[in-house]
Amino acid sequence: MALNTYLIRKEWLSLGDDFVINSTEEDGEGVAYSVDNKILHLRETYHMSDADGTNIYKIMERNIPNHRVVIYDDDEEKVAVVRKRGDGTYWAHVDDERDLFVEGDAEGGVGLTFSNVGGLNVARMTDAWLFALADMRQIDIRADQEDSLILAVTVAVQYLAGDEGDDDDDDEDRIGLGSILFASAYLFRNAWLSIGDDFVINKIGGEDVGWYVNHKALRIRQYYHLENEDGDTLLKIRERHNPRHRMIIEDDGGDKVAVVRKRGDGTYWCHVDDERDIFAEGDASENKLELSNIGGLNVASMSEADLKIFPDGDGFNMVRVRPDQEEDLIMALLVSVQYLVDDEGDDDSDGESDGE
Predict the structure, then answer these.
(1) How far apart are CA 223 and CA 278, in angstroms?
(2) What is the average pLDDT score of the chain?
(3) Which domain of life does this protein belong to (predicted)?
(4) Which of 17, 108, 139, 230 is within CB 3.0–4.6 Å of 6 for a Cys-Cys bond?
């Protein structure tokens, strides 16, 4: 997934003056958006304009009944309400599909991640690394997102960073069901690390079969076939001992698709090619994993089953996959990780060839 990258000044919490958000054009000096602080208003108010000077959003403080920042479009229609929760995270309530959740060090302005209602990351803020520009932060946004809205939420978060937050209830039912809108959800057995038998991966609802995992027990090396609901083999997953311990993913014709290894730090690397590599981290033994692409944004996650999505999923795990991803490959990666979980891992360089 391609990313759109922007640069924002490092002193982004120094409010009271105007500033610009730079694009990646002209070595990071091209202006994408400008933020104009209307200091004569009774409440903190910012106007966000595009590169042509056209006003896009008005970002305004609200004190009553609760401290919030409200984002309006140019027609004064409310677009989003941003609040700081008691746990220090932020919720930008847009509608039932486009809500954003922000967590990380907002006061420091680094390590911020923006996720959707499906729990998958859509943007992040880090120290600028793409360009050799001092005193700048870098914001990477998934190319299928509304860049201007995410940047407006960023401005709102900068204002609320010093707020105490509140413990008002979120609409958990809406957020839980929203996962279906933003990620394809599947059900994995809870005992997924019990290797040696066949199992199925279920679709939303927990009854329909998404994939079969067929363990070829009579092989000398561990060998699995990932089959679709019709029993057709999609991918083959086999163990390799030499020269290093890896899991190899092949297509039905025997051509190598990916190599999965466990690193020395306990994370996993699924090497496909220069664009489709996947990285997995978390406590695989506890069935908690986050999968990200080479841009560092989430493409899938594994956690305990959400009973709002899987009412009969008690004791199972849920895998959520971004709809634009190769679901077969991600499921094959999870099968590989389940086998490598007790492996010691290695400190080989990620750039080292895994060719046979």
Answers:
(1) 21
(2) 79
(3) Eukaryota
(4) 139
